[in-house]
Amino acid sequence: MEEEKLWKAYWNDPSTENKNKLLLCYVGLVKSVVRRMMPVYNGVTDFDDMVSSGVLGLMDAVERYDGREGVKFESYAQKRIRGEILDYMRRQDWISSSMRSRINHVRAAHDALTVKMGREVTDEEIAEYMGCGSAQVKKAREDEYRYNIVYFEQMAVGGEDGTRLIDAIPDKNPESDPAARTDRQDMMRILTAAIGELPEKERRVIELYYGEELLLREIAELLSVTESRVSQIHAKALRRLRAFIEQQLPKIS
Questions:
Q1: CATH architecture entry for 1-93
Q2: Confidence band (pLDDT; 50, 70, 90) for 253?
Q3: pLDDT tens digit string along 110-153?
Q4: Which CATH class is domain 157-253?
Q5: Which CATH number is associated with domain 95-140?
């Protein structure tokens, strides 16, 4: 295979030329990761910026990968590509103070109205309760959804090896910081417990989205519901996960 020839050439001579050939060979992998993440960040950043960040993760993966642990490069690289993109999104600080305020107000109204009504409430009902337009509520809920996904993935992606929550590969790097490894294990324990507390449907969506890496559209087809409904379930699951995680964090600090 062409990839095997490129790797052999690079390992025999890790020159810039051989490295660039590998990067060109796998740039499609970066675009694939970005296409999956893009719906979450649409309107916040653009495709090319995310690809540029992802390429940095790919470069790091090429430099570190030695092929001796039995892990396919594609799996190894995806974690680093995704982690680099998340780092990029963190640096953008795209959640402004005014946006945070709107999110918090809508969240408080949602919680208060849900208790009052004894059921899940609609954006229109929240808008009426707050005395504002439903479009404002919808925008705040969408921003919260993006924010919670970033928050959750920041928790789920950690450490030098980009370990993720569900498909975590044990850290076999002897040079890893033991303290960092312990912190990561604590985070994984909290996340696993948090997911275990979710209602069955919400847990299933989280497992399919993060574990099986299915698109929301694909999950909708699998569960025989609309994509909009899957998005709602996903958003609700993320809110529960974040609340659980924030409650547990002081216990390990």
A1: Orthogonal Bundle (1.10)
A2: very low
A3: 889 989 999 888 889 999 999 999 999 988 888 887 777 766 76
A4: mainly alpha
A5: 1.10.10
Q: Specify the pLDDT at position 248.
A: 73
pTM of the entire predicted model:
0.59
Helix/strand/coil (H, E, C) string of the chain?
A: CHHHHHHHHHHHCCCHHHHHHHHHHHHHHHHHHHHHHHHHHECCECHHHHHHHHHHHHHHHHHHCCCCCCCCHHHHHHHHHHHHHHHHHHHHCCCCHHHHHHHHHHHHHHHHHHHHHCCCCCHHHHHHHHCCCHHHHHHHHHHHHHHHHHHHHHHHCECCCCECCCCCCCCCCCCCCHHHHHHHHHHHHHHHHHHHCCCHHHHHHHHHHHHCCCCHHHHHHHHCCCHHHHHHHHHHHHHHHHHHHHHHHHHHC
Half-sphere exposure of 37 (CA within 13 A, CB side): 29
Question: Of 47-61, 94-108, 190-204, 229-243, where does the model show the most confidence?
Answer: 47-61
